[in-house]
Amino acid sequence: YTEAWDADKKSIHVMPDTPDILLAKANAANVSNKLYVQAWEEAKKKGYDMRADAIPIKTAKASRDIASDYKYKETHEKEKGHYIGCPSAKEDPKLAWAARAMALQNDRLYKKAYNDSKTQIHIPVDALSVQAAKECQTLVSDVDYRQYLHQWTCLPDQNDVIHARQAYDLQSDNVYKSDLEWLRGIGWLTEGSVDVVKAKKAQELLNDRLYRTRPEQLKFTSITDSPDVVLAKTNAMQLSDVSSH
């Protein structure tokens, strides 16, 4: 049934000048890299001829001469030692301008006038700021603040002297603690003190051995024929590997 169709499929012939074939050939020519660079490859094979006086060659030489350090400094080297018209360096405008610029940039010369005028300040003695400073100095001066009294000479049996001695003795730390001197070196045992008794009572309350009775100290005898014991034995026999074999 399909033999005639298969034989017919093999005998199909497409004309080379159909629009689809022409379009495919045109697309292949457009995307071909070989045809794209063919003109450039043929131009490279022919070579090139560039004269020495061509405009690009002259432009490149001029740019090279401008960028050359030797050409850049050639005029300066020729003019060295040929300054004419200035009897000294101070009269040369360029040197004078350079010296002026250096003086403006010099920090010492910039502050010279200020440093010279720092020590030439004249303040009147009755100026308000000076008077305020003197009063502040008087207030904070330790010499004026402390006025040491002269030595008084008093009789030892005067009432005010006796009263002062008693007040000194009451305020004296040595006299205040003199009644405790006899306690020094005396030993004291803490046994029976309030803190020790309180600590012992707290230890007894927190003692687990006194609070709880261990299970091994209790007298207990298990009944062998109770239902739960018999059931446990039966289950053990059923699950035992030795009895199953």
Write up what this structure looks like.
The chain starts with a helix and ends with a helix. The protein has a domain of 33 residues. With 245 residues, it is mainly alpha-helical. The protein is flat and about 145 Å long. The longest helix has 13 residues. Helix content is 61%, strand content 0%. The protein is built from 17 helices and no strands. This is NEBU protein. One of its GO terms (cellular component) is Z disc. Keywords: Actin-binding, Repeat.
How far apart are the termini? 76 Å
Q: Strand percentage, roughly?
A: under 5%
Helix coverage percent = 55-70%
Main sheet makeup: none
Radius of gyration: 62 Å
Please tally the β strands and state the result.
Answer: 0
| Quaternary structure type | single chain
Alpha-beta classification: mainly alpha
Protein name: NEBU protein
Keywords: Actin-binding, Repeat
GO molecular function, one term: actin filament binding
Pfam family, one: Nebulin
Topology, please?
Elements: H1 3-10, H2 19-31, H3 33-36, H4 38-46, H5 55-67, H6 69-79, H7 93-105, H8 107-110, H9 112-118, H10 128-140, H11 142-145, H12 159-171, H13 173-176, H14 194-206, H15 208-211, H16 227-239, H17 241-244
